[in-house]
Structure to design on (365 residues):
C-alpha cells in the first residue's frame, strides 16, 4: 500500500453510515431518486396484492436518515389503498446497517408533517442489518424499494493505493473491488427473491457508471483526495491513516447490474420489467452558475460530501486520536476542501449516473 507501513492488506468491513447532517444535505440523492417515482408507481400498480384483510408489507432498503424515504413510501401507501381497500394495513420496515443513526431515522419518519406513517393503519419499523443479508422471512414482502444505496459494498478487500475512490483503482485492487461488488449484488438479488412473495415488486435506484466505469464524480473525489495528500505532507494526517482511507463504493455499469439476470437461478427468479441508465445534472453547480457565489457553492458541496462520505474517511483514523484531534482533522479538511472548490468550481462538476430497475418476483424458483 502506497504511503503505508509494511503491514499486509487486511480485508475490513465497509463503513458506509451516513453523517449526522445527511438529513439536511442529501438533496443530491433526493434528486436522483425522484427519477424513479413513475417507475415505483408502476410497481404499485403491478404488484400482486395479499389476501383480503392481510397487511401489505414493504421494505425500504438502505434508508439512512429517512428523509428521502417519505415520498416513496407515501407513493406506495397512496397507490395500494385504492386497489386493496382504504383501511388495508400497511407495514413499512426501514433498514440500514447498525452504524446508522436510527434515532434520526425514526424521528424523521414519525414526526415529519405529512409523513406516510401518520396515516391510519400504517405501521413503521426499523431493522439494523445490511441488505446484503437475509432480512425477512420467505415470501414475507410484497414490495421492496432501495434508492442510492446499493453502490456501497459490504467490505473493502484492500485500500486503493494513492486514492480514496474506487474508479481510481487499478490492477488487482480494482479487480478485487469489482468482484466484491458482483458478490454483493448477487447476494442482494438472491435474498430479495427469497423474501418477496410471487408477484412482488423490487425497484432499485442504483448509483451507476458508464461503460468505461466512470461514475461522474471523479473530479469531486480527486479534489478531496488532493486535500488529504496535502494534509499528509503537512503532518496533519498520518500516511498510514491516509493509506487506509477508502470510500467503500462501486458504481456498477448497466451490464454489471443486469448480468445476474441474464441466466441461472436469478434469471429464473426474476422478470426484468424495466431498466434505464440516467445521467443526473449537477444541481449544486447549476445554482452556482445562477448565483455566481463560489463560497456558497463550496459550502454546499462540502456539506454534501461531509454527510455522505466523511464517516468512511474517519473510520480510517488511528483509534488513539482524541476526539479533539478528530475534530481538528475534520475542520482542517473542510476548510481546505472549501478553498479548493471555491477557487475552481467547474473542477468538481458532478454528474452522478443512476440505474433505474424494476423486477417482478416470478412464482417458484
Amino acid at each position: 500500500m502506497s504511503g503505508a507501513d509494511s503491514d499486509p492488506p487486511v480485508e475490513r468491513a465497509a463503513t458506509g453510515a451516513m453523517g449526522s447532517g445527511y438529513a439536511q444535505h442529501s438533496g443530491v440523492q433526493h434528486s436522483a431518486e425522484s427519477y424513479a417515482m413513475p417507475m415505483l408507481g408502476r410497481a404499485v400498480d403491478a404488484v400482486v396484492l395479499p389476501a383480503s384483510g392481510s397487511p401489505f408489507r414493504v421494505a425500504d432498503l438502505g434508508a439512512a436518515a429517512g428523509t428521502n424515504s417519505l415520498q416513496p413510501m407515501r407513493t406506495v401507501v397512496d397507490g395500494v389503498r385504492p386497489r386493496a381497500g382504504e383501511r388495508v394495513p400497511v407495514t413499512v420496515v426501514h433498514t440500514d446497517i447498525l452504524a446508522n443513526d436510527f434515532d434520526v431515522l425514526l424521528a424523521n419518519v414519525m414526526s415529519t408533517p405529512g409523513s406516510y406513517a401518520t396515516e391510519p393503519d400504517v405501521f413503521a419499523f426499523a431493522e439494523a442489518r445490511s441488505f446484503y443479508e437475509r432480512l425477512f422471512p420467505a415470501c414475507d414482502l410484497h414490495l421492496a424499494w432501495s434508492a442510492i444505496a446499493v453502490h456501497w459494498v459490504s467490505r473493502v478487500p484492500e485500500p486503493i493505493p494513492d486514492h480514496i475512490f474506487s474508479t481510481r483503482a487499478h490492477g488487482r485492487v480494482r479487480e478485487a473491488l469489482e468482484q466484491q461488488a458482483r458478490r454483493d449484488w448477487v447476494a442482494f438479488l438472491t435474498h430479495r427473491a427469497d423474501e418477496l412473495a410471487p408477484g412482488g415488486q423490487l425497484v432499485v435506484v442504483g448509483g451507476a457508471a458508464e461503460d468505461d466505469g466512470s461514475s461522474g464524480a471523479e473530479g469531486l473525489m480527486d479534489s478531496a483526495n488532493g486535500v488529504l495528500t496535502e494534509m499528509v505532507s503537512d503532518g496533519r494526517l498520518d500516511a498510514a491513516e491516509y493509506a487506509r482511507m477508502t470510500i467503500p463504493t462501486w458504481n456498477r455499469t448497466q451490464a454489471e447490474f443486469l448480468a445476474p439476470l441474464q441466466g441461472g437461478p436469478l434469471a429464473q427468479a426474476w422478470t426484468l420489467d424495466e431498466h434505464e441508465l440516467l445521467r443526473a445534472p449537477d444541481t449544486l453547480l447549476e445554482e452556482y452558475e445562477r448565483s455566481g457565489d463560489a463560497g456558497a457553492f463550496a459550502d454546499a458541496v462540502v456539506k454534501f460530501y461531509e454527510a455522505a462520505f466523511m464517516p468512511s474517511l474517519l473510520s480510517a483514523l488511528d483509534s488513539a486520536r482524541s476526539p479533539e484531534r478528530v475534530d481538528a482533522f475534520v475542520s482542517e479538511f473542510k476548510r481546505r476542501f472549501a478553498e479548493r472548490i471555491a477557487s475552481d468550481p467547474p473542477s468538481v462538476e458532478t454528474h452522478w449516473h443512476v440505474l433505474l430497475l424494476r423486477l417482478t418476483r416470478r412464482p417458484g424458483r
